[in-house]
Amino acid sequence: MRKAAFVRLTPAQRAELTDRLEREALNGRRRRHVQILLLADEGRTDEQIASATGAGRSTVERHRTRFARAGLEAALTDKPRSGAPAKLDGKQEAMIVALACSDAPEGRARWTAKLLADRAVELEVVESISESTVRRVLKKT
To answer: What is d(CA 43, CA 8) in angstroms, rounded to the nearest whole number?
Structure first.
């Protein structure tokens, strides 16, 4: 199968990538990206690279193409991922957990997610919060 994008690293680029693998504490994704480029430079096929790194074949193709089009740094860095920003910061989460650990309101045996959400708004810990967000915060702890 003919490859549309060849990876040809300069000696300096190869040395930099090898150095990154040996010296830096790379997370799994960044380590895999570096390995993909090094193996592609050796002339390995996408299937060989995928089996050697544990990446999918499409991931190998994508990094090979990204390197050919935009260069080394573009091939090593991911584009920003979608997703909503965090609703609460650490201090707000801690306040909700502390509230849940306090005595339940008068006439109640325990806190409910609805009561915690209402009380957090009442105490101006947050402007607004849903019951499901309160549950998620409590589940983490």
So the answer is: 9
Torsional sign, CA 55, 64, 67, 37: positive
Residue 52 to residue 65: CA distance in whole angstroms: 19
pTM of the model: 0.57
Amino acid at 2: R
Report the alpha-carbon distance of residue 47 to residue 61 in Å, rounded.
10
Residues 65-91 pLDDT 10s = 999 888 888 888 877 878 888 889 999
Environment class of 16 (CB within 10 Å of its CB; exposed 0-12, middle 13-18, buried 19+): middle
Amino acid at 58: S
